[in-house]
Automatic annotation (TrEMBL):
Name this protein carries in UniProt: Flagellar Assembly Protein A N-terminal region domain-containing protein
Alphabetized Pfam families for the sequence: FapA_N (PF20250)
Coiled coil: none
Region called Disordered, residue ranges: 1-21, 601-630
Biased composition regions of type Basic and acidic residues, renumbered to the chain: 621-630
Location of the Flagellar Assembly Protein A N-terminal region domain: 121-280
InterPro entries: FapA, FapA_N
């Protein structure tokens, strides 16, 4: 019948009825009761073998399965496993010798066998043949109740040649499979292949996809349930339990921006939002968010050059000649390469050494030292604790200590400046002086208002022109209204409108006749009055434009100032004109900043110099703040 499993349970016996025996002998074979358990079958088999019987025509594989592997109620009807139950005569039992058991394996020496001389069935020294079914019964009584190799034993018996044979072996337990978490999307994987540019060429310095990005609702991971192991058995039939497989939960890897969902009978870790995939090395948690977090540093080996669309936070170093482009960039290690931000804030938690930090629209903050570096922002503040031999430009620059730096900005605030060239509309320095062979040079950015002066003069001239035109129209009106018939009509018309005079019908007809006569003159007066009002309106607009231009000029002219609280050596200040219409004076390439400051030092005469005391320029500012104008 084989060792195929079964799937149903036999009905229970009626209450009060005698239960059926576990081992059932019938004319058509030997059966196990359908509802019997493995323990009951083992007990029944043991009783049979110990009583000196054996199973003839035994289906050993099925027999072994029913004793050890079959579950209770596996079959819905009795299972046949042998032909008959036969007695095992003592004379034949003596044919089976001892077996050697070592480390879960049983060896048996097969040799020609003979019945004892006193056997009644045949003559003495008559050769005899072993039988597999008897072998199984004899081995059971010798303690081998599991794992007989039926094929090997039958072959050894059939061969008839003497020799040692491995007849049984222990079945070791088969470990199960621990629960596991597996990936379900390729989007989690990086691609370190060179990026292909728009021109079809490969950029060997940039990876194709260093920081994976996923969309919302993407399935990231799934949980694989643990699979139980398979029980083993000693030769004695004692079970060897398989280790209990370990389970794992998705909560151990679920981070911010992810959720656990039960879909199609399986637990999945799903991205709750669109963003970049970040894996924490220590906790192994996966998080999804707008910020890229890296701890490997930026180098040729780890990331190559980076061109990012989101925020970026790096805990390692940015090595020399490496470029990081993105927005809202934070670097915790030293920076030796180039940081370029499209906006937001560049935050360098450590040092900027020989590198570059450029921000199109936002601040640059360096918590450590900037040396031989370039820091530039078009619209934002540059804040550095200590800067040495740097080029710095921005809307506002704040430095603790600056040495041998070139700085241009709208506003500069420095604690200590030595050997620097600084140009700004507003300069405030606590202490300033030369450094070794480097001069301390200050440049007050003074707006070039010549174009505004031309604008004011043009508006004033146009306003005066409209004033003269207005006066000409008024003079023409006076000439027309000065005629006798026109003046008489206007005087009478005014008295009639004010009801000072009541005209008779004849007087009314005469009045209307006069109106017809002076009508053309009155129309001309109306046209001249309208033209005069229009010219007067234009004159007012020109005057308002001139006042606005003057206000702009005053604001630009009064913005330049320079204050040094303590001079620690020779310091020279010059005025540096700039054209506001050309944009911010500091918006220059780094190489042009140094060139312009050094050129201005050669072409502009100093407006102030000194080596001790304080510097306050322009002096008029101090006078307006309460000083004696005399």
């Amino acid at each position: 019948m084989g060792n195929q499993p079964f799937s149903s349970v036999s009905p229970a016996a009626p209450v009060g009825a005698t239960p059926e025996p576990v081992l059932q002998r019938r004319d058509d074979g030997v059966f196990f009761r359908a509802s019997s358990t493995a323990a009951e079958r083992q007990a029944a088999v043991g009783q049979t073998f110990l009583s000196g019987a054996y199973f003839s025509g035994l289906d050993y594989d099925l027999f072994l399965h029913l004793l050890y592997d079959a579950s209770s109620g596996e079959a819905d009807e009795p299972v046949r496993f042998a032909d008959t139950v036969e007695p095992l005569a003592l004379a034949r039992r003596a044919l089976y010798k001892s077996v050697k058991i070592v480390l879960g394996e049983a060896d048996y020496y097969f040799e020609p066998v003979f019945l004892d001389a006193g056997a009644a069935t045949q003559d003495a020294n008559q050769g005899e043949t072993l039988r597999f079914d008897e072998f199984v019964a004899d081995m059971w009584q010798k303690g081998i109740r599991f794992g007989i190799d039926a094929v090997a034993v039958r072959a050894a018996i059939g061969n008839g040649k003497p020799g040692r044979c491995l007849v049984a072996r222990r079945r070791d337990a088969v470990p199960g499979r621990d629960g596991a978490i597996v990936e379900v999307t390729e989007a989690l994987h990086r691609s370190n292949a060179p990026r292909e540019g728009a021109n079809g060429k490969l950029d060997l310095h940039t990876f194709q996809n260093r920081f994976p990005q996923v969309s919302a609702r993407t399935r990231l991971l799934k949980k694989m349930l643990p699979v139980p192991g398979i029980r083993g058995y000693e030769l004695s039939g004692i079970p060897i339990e398989a280790p209990v497989p370990k389970d794992v939960e998705l909560t151990s890897v679920a981070g911010t921006g992810t959720v656990i969902e039960h879909l199609d009978g399986t637990d999945f870790l799903v991205a709750a939002v669109q963003g970049f995939v970040n894996v924490d090395r220590r906790s192994r948690r996966i998080s999804i968010g707008p910020r890229i977090v890296s701890r490997e540093g930026v180098s040729v080996r780890t990331t190559g050059n980076l061109q990012l669309t989101g925020e970026y936070e790096e805990f390692g170093e940015v090595q020399e000649n490496r470029v990081v482009e993105g927005g809202n960039i934070t670097i915790h290690g030293d920076v030796f390469g180039r940081i370029v931000s499209r906006g937001g804030t560049i935050v360098l938690r450590h040092n900027l050494m020989g590198g570059t930090a450029i921000n199109a629209d936002g601040a640059i903050r360096v918590a450590g030292v900037a040396a031989n570096a370039v820091l530039q922002t078009r619209a934002g503040e540059v804040a550095v604790q200590r800067a040495q031999s740097c080029i710095i430009t921005g809307t506002r620059v704040r430095i603790g200590v600056a040495i041998n730096c070139e700085i241009m900005a709208d506003e500069v605030v420095i604690g200590s400046a030595s050997g620097c060239a600084i140009a700004a509309r507003s300069i405030v320095i606590e202490s300033a002086g030369p450094h070794k062979h480097g001069e301390m040079m200050l440049f007050a950015l003074v707006a070039d208002t010549s174009r505004i002066d031309d604008e004011i003069a043009d508006l004033a001239a146009r306003g005066q022109s409209y004033a003269r035109l207005t006066q000409r129209h008024r003079d023409a009106i006076d000439v027309i209204t000065g005629r006798r018939e026109v003046s008489a009509y206007l005087a009478l018309a005014q008295r009639v409108r004010q009801r000072e005079v009541v005209l008779t019908p004849e007087q009314l007809r005469a009045f209307q006749k006069i109106r017809l006569q002076v009508g053309p003159a009155l129309q001309e007066v109306a046209q001249l009055s309208l033209a005069a009002r229009q010219a007067q309106t234009q004159q007012a607009l020109m005057q308002e434009g001139a006042r606005a231009a003057q206000a702009r000029k005053d604001a630009l002219a009064g913005a330049a100032s320079c204050r040094v609280r303590l001079l620690a050596g020779e310091t020279v200040m010059r005025a540096m004109p700039y054209n506001p219409e050309h944009g911010a004076a500091y918006d220059l390439p780094a190489r042009d900043v140094r060139t312009r400051l050094r050129a201005e030092a050669q072409t502009r005469a100093p407006v102030w110099s000194g080596s001790t005391g304080t510097l306050a320029w322009p002096p008029a500012a101090r006078e307006r703040q309460g000083g004696d104008p005399d």
